[in-house]
């Protein structure tokens, strides 16, 4: 490589880690943010998601519903408080 040549950049492969986000790409920004926060945590409640994302609980509820509709989030009842759902990213 000469002094004036830039190093070659390789395009990410189709089998790359980023492909797991494909189902989320067309969703609204609020859903993407909720998915990213869930990616950083094992499970969170709706109120914890609202706190982490600085979104309203209503916006979080809509985002979670969209994420569940595309199959990237699962929910289950909290063992510590059966009134709450715990959300987990599945991709």
Polypeptide structure, described:
The structure is a single chain. The N and C termini lie far apart (40 Å). The protein has helices spanning 29-40, 46-53, 57-69, and strands spanning 73-77, 85-89. The chain has a single domain (26-89), classed as Winged helix-like DNA-binding domain superfamily/Winged helix DNA-binding domain (Arc Repressor Mutant, subunit A, Orthogonal Bundle), CATH 1.10.10.10. Strand 1 (73-77) and strand 2 form a beta hairpin. A two-stranded antiparallel sheet has the order 1-2. The protein is built from three helices and two strands. The mean pLDDT is 87. Helix 1 crosses helix 3 and helix 2 (46-53) packs across helix 3 (57-69). Helix content is 36%, strand content 11%. With 91 residues, the protein is of the alpha+beta class. The radius of gyration is 18 Å and the shape is globular.
Mean of pLDDT? 87
Percentage of residues assigned to helices? 25-40%
- Return the CATH class: Mainly Alpha
**How many beta strands in the DSSP annotation?**
2
Instruction: Identify the strand order in the major beta sheet.
Output: 1-2
Number of helices: 3
CATH topology description: Arc Repressor Mutant, subunit A
Measured distance between first and last alpha carbons: 40 Å
The CATH H-level superfamily is Winged helix-like DNA-binding domain superfamily/Winged helix DNA-binding domain
CATH architectural label: Orthogonal Bundle
Brief characterization of the structure:
The chain has 91 residues and is of the alpha+beta class.
